[in-house]
Amino acid sequence: MRLLILGGTAEARNLAAQLVDDGDDVVSSLAGRVARPRLPVGGVRIGGFGGSEGLAKWLSENEIDAVIDATHPFAAQITRNASIACAQVAKPLVRVRRPPWTPTSTDQWVRVADMNGAADAVRSEGGRVFLTTGRQDVGVFADIADAWFLIRVVDPPTGKLPVNSEVLLARGPYGYDDEVALMRAHDVSTLVTKNSGGALTHAKLDAARDLGIRVVMVDRPPEPDGMEAVDTVDAAVDWLRHR
Ligand code: NAP
Q1: Which of 4, 72, 210, 233 is the most buried (most CB within 10 A)?
Q2: Is 73 a pocket residue for ligand 1 (Cβ < 6 Å)?
Q3: At what angle do helices 76-88 and 51-61 cross, to 10 degrees?
């Protein structure tokens, strides 16, 4: 089969590796947001398609048999575009949607609907904030002067930063001991995170719980109704094989 994987995640890279190994003709698509992306095996294209119309055209021109949307749970636009484009050109589409994190009885989560809600939650308490929401969302916190921020990002943010902040360039996965040490060293009182799910960045939640740190958890954006979805890479491979 000739397959398009919408990627930018560990699941997408794992899926590409499995499918290439099985002999499928795979193209992975990356948005081109990070300077030095981890590249999947198989074919790779980088950059936007030009909305759902552009994606629909690309699928037809490249004779794609099926699309696997393995993008990050917060990459809502490309997921919407994939849903519209695949319906338009009648290509099968499956979403690899890793399960969200859920709090344990001892977690202190403040759940918010979006990034503006997270900024409001930070404004209300101030303190020392560990911001792990990614480069694109830093601007929402830029006008908060009554808190100090440790901003962890893969590439340096390009927009305005909060006046009291320090940027830490790092790329996961992150381990529990390192997360505890980092939060202690910076005397963190609030962790702000998207509900990305998955194991690779979960250690910060364990560390926050054990250190009694408040977690501001941004809920996932909604996805198009009726999307076929699976939880894991293996389930996505099964889905393809059953078609
Ligand atoms: P987004 O807001 O959903 O998409 C914005 C636009 O970027 C899309 O309309 C599309 O442009 C382009 N795009 C996004 N993903 C693409 C892909 N895989 N291949 C080609 N074009 C893509 O996306 P985002 O939240 O900025 O995320 C961008 C990428 O980073 C995604 O691939 C995602 O898996 C990865 N990522 C995102 C996050 C996050 O927190 N959002 C975290 C980790 C990794 P056109 O309309 O021109 O096609």
Answers
A1: 4
A2: no
A3: 50
Ligand 1 proximity of 81 Cβ (cutoff 6 Å): yes
Task: Calculate how far, in angstroms, residue 75's C-alpha sits from the geometric centre of ligand 1.
Answer: 5
Atom index in ligand 1 nearest the CA of residue 71 equals 34
Q: What is the DSSP letter of 85?
A: H
Along the 243 residues of the chain, how does pLDDT read in single tens digits?
999 999 999 999 999 999 999 999 999 999 999 989 999 999 999 999 999 999 999 999 999 999 999 999 999 999 999 999 999 999 999 999 999 999 999 888 999 999 999 999 999 999 999 999 999 999 999 999 999 999 999 999 999 999 999 999 999 999 999 999 999 999 999 999 999 999 999 999 999 999 999 999 999 999 999 999 999 999 999 999 998
pLDDT of residue 243: 85
- Yes or no: say if 44 and 67 are a contact pair by the CB < 8 Å rule: no
> 122: Cβ–Cβ under 8 A, 6 or more apart, which residues?
129, 141, 144, 147, 190, 192, 216
Which atom belonging to ligand 1 lies closest to the Cα atom of 137? Answer: 40
CB of 33 within 6 A of ligand 1: the answer is yes
What is the length of the chain? 243
Strand order in the sheet with 25-30: 43-46, 25-30, 2-6, 66-69, 93-96, 229-230
CB neighbour class for 95 (10 Å; exposed up to 12, middle 13-18, buried from 19):
buried
Which residues is 153 bridged to in the sheet?
169
Strands 66-69 vs 214-218: parallel, antiparallel or unpaired: unpaired
* Residue 219, both tokens: 């809920």
